[in-house]
Design a protein that fits this description.
Blueprint: H1 3-15, H2 18-25, H3 29-43, E1 48-50, E2 55-57, H4 59-87, E3 91-98, H5 99-102, H6 106-116, E4 120-127, H7 129-137, E5 143-147, H8 155-164, E6 166-180, E7 201-204, H9 210-221, E8 227-231, H10 235-240, E9 246-249, H11 250-254, E10 261-263, E11 269-278, H12 285-297
Parallel strand pairs: 3-4, 3-5, 7-8
Antiparallel strand pairs: 1-2, 5-11, 6-9, 6-10, 6-11
Helix pairs in contact: 1-2, 1-3, 1-4
Length: about 300
């Protein structure tokens, strides 16, 4: 039994005439009669009885008409809900995001997204890249916004991504700078190299951070291992108190907050931020909407 057959049946029942129903449906009358005949054969009852100028419903036909109208109405509601969802989607999504992103670009992005898609609720889990990718792989997140993977800085994460089907799309590049406290001896410098920081104490992001991995790899190339005195989600606060220096994204270093001085690095360092998802895993319509929005706006 097909919805088309129900539609044909209801139209004949309403017009009480095969010819007029066929004209309205824009099909040949023999084809309409055949569809009704197939429906009657499947049900094992006669749905119509002929009158002088047309047809009327039999008793089984009257009962079937009630159910057919209800079914067609439900089908139309389902179609309308899909159309409405396309224009005004509803649901929830779980997004993982870097702490540095939550403190800089993500809030304004979420405000804009909420205005455009008020029916979608976004739940944010804030962490470093490694645990975010692990949560993504376990199905606890729909998407993750993290530090792009580089075999030089994080070979184990590259292997994890390859083994679990994690794919990514790069979004934007972020310059990394040195942050020092006001009054620090290095404050007057216009530019500085990583090699000149071998005697400094560092305030670093937590383990699992892409910037931390990048810092460690860069320092090792310069022949030393950095002294990480403190690690936290917001190094800038401790840097401002004179507890060490830190490598931060420029966006994070220049955002409103505790007063610090910023020095460019020579040679320059940068990191890419990417959106991560599981290749081949089902993405809900809400997730697809958010992914498209991020790719258009977070660049």
């Amino acid at each position: 039994m097909e919805l088309r057959q129900l539609f044909y049946f209801v139209e004949v029942a309403r017009l009480k005439n095969y010819t007029r129903a066929a004209e309205r449906l824009k099909i040949a009358q023999p084809a309409l009669s055949q569809q009704i005949g197939n429906l009657e054969q499947e049900l094992g009852v006669k749905l119509f009885k002929r009158t002088g100028r047309g047809v009327t419903l039999t008793e089984p036909g009257e009962q079937f008409y009630i159910g057919a109208e209800r079914t067609l109405a439900e089908a139309q509601r389902a179609k309308d809900s899909v159309k409405e969802f396309i224009n005004y989607p509803n649901g929830k999504i779980r997004i993982g995001a870097l702490e540095s992103l939550v403190q800089t670009r993500l809030p304004s992005l979420l405000v804009a997204f909420g205005k455009e898609y008020p029916g979608i609720k976004v739940f944010i889990r804030e962490n470093t890249t490694e645990p975010l990718l692990e949560d993504l792989q376990k199905g606890e997140l729909d998407l993750a916004l993290g530090h792009s993977l580089d075999v030089t800085y994080s070979p184990h994460l590259v292997r994890l991504a390859a083994q679990t089907g994690i794919s990514s799309k790069p979004l934007y590049q972020d310059e990394l700078v040195l942050a020092v406290a006001k009054g620090h001896p290095l404050e007057r410098r216009k530019i500085i190299s990583i090699g000149e920081l071998r005697e400094e104490s560092f305030v670093s992001f937590k383990e699992g951070s892409g910037i931390r991995s990048q810092l460690l790899a860069t320092c090792l190339r310069e022949g030393f291992e950095p002294l990480i005195a403190y690690e936290c989600a917001s190094p800038r606060t401790l840097v401002a108190k004179g507890l060490g220096v830190s490598i931060l994204p420029r966006l994070m270093a220049e955002s409103p907050g505790p007063t610090i001085s910023i020095l460019p690095l020579d040679p320059p360092l940068s990191r890419w931020v990417s959106v991560f998802y599981i290749e081949g895993r089902y993405l809900s319509p809400c997730t697809k909407v958010f992914l498209d929005f991020v790719e258009r706006h977070l660049v």
